[in-house]
C-alpha cells in the first residue's frame, strides 16, 4: 500500500471526517487510492496514485462493501452513493473491441450498445441477463438513443449518417449531408421532447480510420447539428468546439452539454462545454466552459455524458490509466467534480437504465459495467 504524506492526510481530515465513525475502517479498506483521489481535489495530489486494489471482475471473489472504487470527492456526492452495492461487470468478451453508445429500452427492458469495429450492435436483456447480437451489420454505429415513442436512432460511422429504425423494421435515413457535403461520421445523438428535434455531433472519428468506419477526408467543420422533426431540415447549431463528441440535455431541457475530445491548445485541457437552448428550441446561445477534465496532474478526456434528475453530469473518462479511467461526476452549478467511479478499462459512454432509471451502465473498451446509484437519469435514455 502506498503511503500518504502526513501533511496531506492532515489537510484532508475535514473531508475524511464526513465518513463518520467508521472513517478508520474505510481508510484501511480503500487505502491510498481514496486519499490520493481526495488530495487531487485540494491540489495536494499524491504521487503514484493507483486504482483501488485488484479485484475479481468475474464476481467469484466478492468485493467487500462499501465498494472502494466508488469514491466521494465531495460530500455532495454522498447522497448518490450506495454503501451496499458493487460495480458489476455485466458483460465481457475478448472478441468485443470497442463498446460504445449504450441506450436503455424502458419498454422491453434491455440495454443496447455498439461494438464499432466489429460492425454490430449487442443487446443485454435485464430479465435473463443474456447477451446476443441485435443488429449486424450496423453501419459501424456509434451513439444510440430511443425517441419518445420508442424508436431507435443510431449514428453510423461507416455510412456517415443518422438513421431511425421504425416499428415495422424499416430504416429511415435522417441525415447524410449538410449544404451538399457529406457528414464526417455522426457520433452521438439525443432527442428533445418538446418538439421531437434530433441533435447530434459530427467529429469524424469514423472517417479518420478504417477500423471504425471508412477512412476518407473530412469535408466539413466538426459541428453539432439539429434535425427538425416536422420538416427534416438540418441546422448547424454550433461549431465552437474542436471535436464535439458526447452530448446530453439538462433535466429541464434548457441547456445542452457537449464533450470536446479534440486536442486542446497548449496550456489547455479537454473539457465539457454548455450552451443555453434558445426559447424556440431552434438553436444554441451563450456557449461557455462547464468543466475541465484535468484531475490533479492527470489530463484525460470525457466521451459520452448523461445528466441525472438533479442536474449532475456523469461523464465517461479515459486515456490516462488507474485512478482516472471510469466515470467522473460534476455538480451543475460550477462544474465541480464531486465523485469518481473507477474502472479497469477506458470508459467510452454511459446511460441510466433499469426500472427506476437508477442503474448506471458504462461501456468500457471490451466490457460493459453497471452500478446502482441513488441518482436517477434525467431522460428516457
Description:
It is built from four helices and 29 strands. The protein has 381 residues and is mainly β. A hairpin with a 7-residue loop joins β24 and β25. The chain has two domains: 61 residues, no CATH class; 285 residues, Neuraminidase. The chain is 8% helix and 39% strand. The strands form eight sheets. Strands 1-26-25-24-23 form a five-stranded antiparallel β-sheet, covered by helices on one side. Strands 2-29-28-27 form a four-stranded antiparallel β-sheet, with no helix packed on it. Strands 3-4-5-6 form a four-stranded antiparallel β-sheet, with no helix packed on it. The two termini are 40 Å apart.
Distance from N terminus to C terminus (CA atoms, Å) equals 40 Å
CATH fold label of the largest domain: Neuraminidase
Beta-strand percentage range: 35-45%
Q: In CATH terms, what is the architecture of the largest domain?
A: 6 Propeller
What structural class do the secondary elements suggest?
Answer: mainly beta
Q: Briefly, what CATH class of the largest domain? A: Mainly Beta
Radius of gyration in whole Å, from Cα?
20 Å
Can you tell me the residue ranges where pLDDT is under 50 for at least 5 consecutive residues? 1-51
Count of separate DSSP helical elements: 4
For the biggest sheet, the summary is: 5 strands, antiparallel
Mean pLDDT: 89
DSSP summary, beta strand count: 29
Number of structural domains: 2
What strand order characterises the main sheet?
1-26-25-24-23
Shape label: globular
Helicity range: under 10%
CATH superfamily heading of the largest domain: TolB, C-terminal domain
Amino acid at each position: 500500500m502506498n503511503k500518504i504524506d502526513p501533511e496531506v492526510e492532515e489537510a484532508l481530515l475535514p473531508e475524511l471526517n464526513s465518513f463518520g465513525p467508521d472513517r478508520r475502517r474505510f481508510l484501511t479498506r480503500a487505502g491510498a487510492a481514496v486519499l490520493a483521489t481526495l488530495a487531487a481535489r485540494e491540489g495536494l495530489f499524491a504521487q503514484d496514485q493507483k486504482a483501488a486494489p485488484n479485484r475479481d471482475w468475474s464476481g467469484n471473489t466478492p468485493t467487500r462493501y462499501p465498494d472502494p472504487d466508488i469514491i466521494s470527492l465531495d460530500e455532495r456526492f454522498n447522497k448518490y452513493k450506495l454503501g451496499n452495492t458493487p460495480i458489476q461487470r455485466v458483460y465481457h468478451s475478448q472478441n468485443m473491441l470497442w463498446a460504445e453508445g449504450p441506450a436503455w429500452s424502458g419498454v422491453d427492458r434491455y440495454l443496447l450498445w455498439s461494438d464499432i469495429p466489429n460492425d454490430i450492435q449487442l443487446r443485454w436483456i435485464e430479465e435473463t441477463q443474456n447477451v446476443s447480437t441485435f443488429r449486424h451489420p450496423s453501419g459501424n454505429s456509434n451513439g444510440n438513443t430511443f425517441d419518445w415513442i420508442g424508436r431507435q436512432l443510431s449514428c453510423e460511422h461507416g455510412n456517415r449518417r443518422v438513421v431511425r429504425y421504425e416499428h415495422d423494421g424499416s430504416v429511415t435515413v435522417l441525415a447524410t449531408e449538410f449544404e451538399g457535403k457529406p457528414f464526417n461520421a455522426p457520433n452521438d445523438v439525443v432527442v428533445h421532447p418538446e418538439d421531437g428535434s434530433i441533435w447530434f455531433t459530427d467529429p469524424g472519428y469514423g472517417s479518420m480510420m478504417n477500423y471504425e468506419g471508412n477512412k476518407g477526408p473530412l469535408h466539413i467543420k466538426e459541428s453539432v447539428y439539429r434535425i427538425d422533426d416536422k420538416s427534416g431540415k438540418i441546422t448547424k447549431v454550433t461549431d465552437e468546439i474542436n471535436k464535439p463528441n458526447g452530448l446530453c440535455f439538462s433535466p429541464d431541457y434548457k441547456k445542452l452539454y457537449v464533450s470536446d475530445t479534440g486536442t486542446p491548445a497548449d496550456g489547455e485541457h479537454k473539457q465539457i462545454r454548455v450552451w443555453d437552448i434558445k426559447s424556440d428550441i431552434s438553436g444554441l446561445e451563450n456557449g461557455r466552459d462547464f468543466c475541465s477534465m484535468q484531475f490533479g496532474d492527470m489530463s484525460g478526456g470525457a466521451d459520452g455524458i448523461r445528466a441525472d434528475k438533479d442536474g449532475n453530469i456523469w461523464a465517461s473518462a479515459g486515456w490516462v490509466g488507474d485512478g482516472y479511467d471510469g466515470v467522473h461526476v460534476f455538480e451543475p452549478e460550477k462544474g465541480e467534480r464531486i465523485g469518481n467511479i473507477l474502472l479497469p478499462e477506458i470508459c467510452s459512454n454511459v446511460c441510466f437504465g433499469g426500472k427506476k432509471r437508477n442503474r448506471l451502465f458504462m461501456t468500457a473498451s471490451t466490457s460493459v459495467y453497471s452500478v446502482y446509484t441513488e441518482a436517477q437519469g434525467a431522460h428516457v435514455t
